[in-house]
Amino acid sequence: MAFDPELVGTWVAQDDEEFVFTMIDTTRGVYTLLCDESGATARFEAVLVELGSETFLDIYPDEPDNDNSFYLDHLLRVHNILRVQRDADTLWVADFDAEWLETTIAKKKLSIAHVALDGAVLLTATTPDLQAFVKKYAKTPEAFSEPVRLRRTM
After folding, report:
1. Cα dihedral across residues 73, 114, 135, 148: positive or negative
2. CA angle 38, 45, 67 (to 5 degrees)
3. Nearest-5° angle of CA 34, CA 140, CA 92?
4. In the chain, how many domains are there?
């Protein structure tokens, strides 16, 4: 786990000012990430992780504000890994490309514990295996989505 105080603040997507990341320092190691898309806000716990020479955010969604226990019992919240790069007041964020992951697994070019889940792939490997996977493909451009470029506003 790492901490970068320079991540704390508000970041607005360069190509879509309706997409805003707000990083809040909660405990010097764990951030709260507020992701606002056109007024709809989602809240995540975020941990900065350095694997090799690359930096990632491990984000985990907060439980939704919903009193329906039946709904909450059937909701699957999972960790997601975002590759992050920062240069002064610019932040680039990219997640694993779902299509690349599905195709690579289907072609048996990738062996990692997973399950197919409603048109997506849920990686179920151990933490050390997941870290090795992320580190191995960190510099594979096609493994990640096109980065979102955000600029600091506060």
Report:
1. negative
2. 70
3. 30
4. 1
Question: Residue 62 gets which letter from DSSP?
Answer: P
Which stretches of 5-130 are assigned E, i.e. beta strand?
A: 9-13, 19-25, 31-37, 40-51, 54-61, 80-87, 90-95, 114-117, 120-123
Q: Give me the amino acid identity at 93.
A: V
Domain range for 103 is: 5-152
| pLDDT given at position 18 | 87
Cα separation, 83 vs 92, whole angstroms: 8
Please report which confidence band the pLDDT of residue 65 belongs to, taking 50, 70 and 90 as the band edges: confident
Is the CB of residue 120 less than 8 Å from the CB of residue 58?
Answer: no
| Burial track 69-86 (b if 16+ CB lie within 10 A, e otherwise) | eeeeeeeeeeebbbbbeb
pTM score: 0.87
